[in-house]
């Protein structure tokens, strides 16, 4: 099931949805497992969530993707979430599963993370995603090898466009989630978003089109600027 929600106050709605899913997961299963998005868009969401009441000790954090950088790099998705969310909420380190980018090779980084996911959870309660202006999501970039992964839960991905390695959970893992939320804003992404949501199905070129939960819910949470070219809303 796909829902498109255009929010005047994107982060307020995003925080409400996050807390709602978290409370439901905790009530049903005693914990809430979430794969956080990286990049710049979710930063304000994490800052807002750090002011919210929730049984944070019952939240288990993973990352949908990571860059091939040390954790103290300004590029690190872990660093951004640590500074905006984990430290302000004093989250127990044992509840944070980050990509160990310090391991010797990209393959070892990815294998160790896939092991963590496989051991801890088969199904994320929430996968939070962003979308790049090229239609990528997590670190699934156009025409990259990871798009076709059907077995592993997480893997390394060579990104030609950036001449660098990236780390990403796979589409089977994303699409196995109970809830998926795309958090996207900005006029500069309005055309690519229209192509993803209303254009031809071209997943190699528009990897975000491969996000299709098997049984879970998919919410496209958009600001008015990014949604301005859309002609159809709703499921
Ligand atoms: C990353 C992300 C990536 C991000 C998009 C959008 O590591 O960069 O996980 O998929 O969500 O690139 O990034 P912005 O939010 O910065 O536009």
Describe it.
- The chain has 235 residues and is an alpha/beta fold.
- Helix content is 29%, strand content 20%.
- It has six helices and nine strands.
- It has helices at 10-29, 43-49, 77-89, 106-120, 171-175, 190-198, and strands at residues 2-7, 32-36, 59-63, 65-67, 126-129, 154-159, 164-169, 179-184, 217-223.
- It has a six-stranded parallel sheet with strand order 1-9-8-5-2-3, covered by helices on one side.
- Helix 6 (190-198) links the parallel strand 8 (179-184) and strand 9 (217-223).
- Helix 2 (43-49) runs parallel beside helix 3.
- The mean pLDDT is 97.
- 6-phosphogluconic acid (6PG) binds at residues 37-41, 65, 67, 77, 130-132, 136-139.
List the helices and strands and how they pair.
Elements: E1 2-7, H1 10-29, E2 32-36, H2 43-49, E3 59-63, E4 65-67, H3 77-89, H4 106-120, E5 126-129, E6 154-159, E7 164-169, H5 171-175, E8 179-184, H6 190-198, E9 217-223
Parallel strand pairs: 1-9, 2-3, 2-5, 5-8, 8-9
Antiparallel strand pairs: 4-7, 6-7
Helix pairs in contact: 1-2, 2-3
Bound molecules: 6-phosphogluconic acid.
List keywords for this structure.
6 helices; alpha/beta; binds 6-phosphogluconic acid; 6-stranded parallel beta sheet; 235 residues; globular
What would a concise description of this structure say?
The chain has helices at residues 10-29, 43-49, 77-89, 106-120, 171-175, 190-198; strands spanning 2-7, 32-36, 59-63, 65-67, 126-129, 154-159, 164-169, 179-184, 217-223. It has 235 residues and is an alpha/beta fold.
Order of helices and strands: EHEHEEHHEEEHEHE
Largest sheet: 6 strands, parallel
Total number of beta strands:
9
Query: Order of strands across the widest beta sheet?
Result: 1-9-8-5-2-3
Small molecules bound in the structure, each named once: 6-phosphogluconic acid
The helix tally amounts to 6
The chain-level mean pLDDT equals 97
- Tell me the β content: 15-25%
What class do helices, strands and sheet pairing give? Answer: alpha/beta
Low-pLDDT stretches are none
Distance between the termini: 6 Å
Radius of gyration: 16 Å
Helical proportion, percent range: 25-40%
Shape: globular
């Amino acid at each position: 099931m796909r829902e498109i929600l255009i929010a005047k106050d994107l982060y307020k709605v995003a925080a409400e949805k996050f807390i709602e899913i978290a409370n439901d997961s905790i009530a049903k299963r005693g914990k809430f497992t979430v794969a956080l998005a990286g990049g710049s868009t979710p930063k304000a969401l994490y800052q807002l969530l750090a002011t919210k009441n929730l049984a944070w000790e019952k939240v288990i954090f993973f990352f949908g993707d990571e860059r091939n950088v040390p954790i103290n790099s300004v590029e690190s998705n872990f660093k951004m979430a640590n500074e905006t969310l984990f430290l302000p909420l004093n989250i127990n380190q044992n509840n944070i599963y980050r990509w160990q980018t310090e391991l010797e090779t990209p393959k070892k980084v990815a294998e160790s993370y896939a092991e963590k996911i496989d051991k801890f959870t088969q199904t994320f309660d929430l996968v939070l995603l962003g979308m790049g202006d090229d239609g990528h999501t997590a670190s699934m970039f156009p025409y990259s090898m990871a798009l076709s992964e059907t077995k592993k839960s997480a893997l390394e991905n060579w990104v030609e466009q950036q001449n660098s390695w990236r780390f990403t959970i796979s589409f089977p893992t994303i699409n196995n989630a109970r809830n998926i939320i795309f958090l996207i804003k900005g006029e500069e992404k309005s055309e690519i978003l229209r192509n993803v949501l209303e254009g031809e199905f071209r997943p190699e070129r528009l990897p975000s089109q491969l996000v299709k939960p098997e049984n879970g819910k998919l919410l496209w949470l958009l600001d008015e600027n990014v949604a301005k070219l859309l002609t159809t809303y709703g499921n």
